[in-house]
């Protein structure tokens, strides 16, 4: 990991490429399984496993990102099929049919692009466990992707961006990190503001 000064004279970590502002369309890949080296997560609370009356298409992507964090928060590595089964259970599905499997495969790819998880040698593990594991450039990219082109109250923008990264709650550390990202984006001309509201620069 190296650090280099950005346009504002502040050091920015460059261990990863910044998160892109839009997710590319999912491909039809299926990640390989390596069950001999993976361990099944035992840290899923039974209280989150309930019967669901929803279809997978009725669950928004950010809620699935949060479920992915729930599955991997213990720090264990899982093969993709085991991960998909556990994520489906957190979302309330007792069975994992073809449609759910396909949707969660796509969600795992999204979570990898957002640096929530990573995949290495056939197994998946948590990449950024806390907000401090993200670089400021990654947080700026997340904000821009979450906000679209409309005006946002700053606190609402922070909550939406945090949910995009799978965080269910926005505690003081998350707010502090995103406030710094907002200020950095304003200085770089990526965001414009009017008092407490912000939007992407045109």
Plain-language structure description:
With 202 residues, the protein is of the alpha+beta class. It folds into 2 domains: 46-126, Arc Repressor Mutant, subunit A, CATH 1.10.10; 131-200, Arc Repressor Mutant, subunit A (Orthogonal Bundle), CATH 1.10.10. It contains 6 helices and 7 strands. The strands form 3 sheets. The protein has a 3-stranded antiparallel β-sheet. It has a two-stranded antiparallel ribbon with strand order 1-2. Helix 1 packs across helix 3 (98-113), helix 4 packs across helix 5 (154-164) and helix 4 (136-147) crosses helix 6 (172-187). The radius of gyration is 18 Å and the shape is elongated.
**Second CATH tier, the architecture of the largest domain:** Orthogonal Bundle
CATH class of the largest domain: Mainly Alpha
Give the radius of gyration.
Answer: 18 Å
Structural class computed from helices and strand pairing: alpha+beta
Low-confidence stretches: 1-15, 17-51
Question: What is the average of the pLDDT values?
Answer: 82
Query: What is the number of E strands?
Result: 7
Which bin fits the share of residues in helices? 25-40%
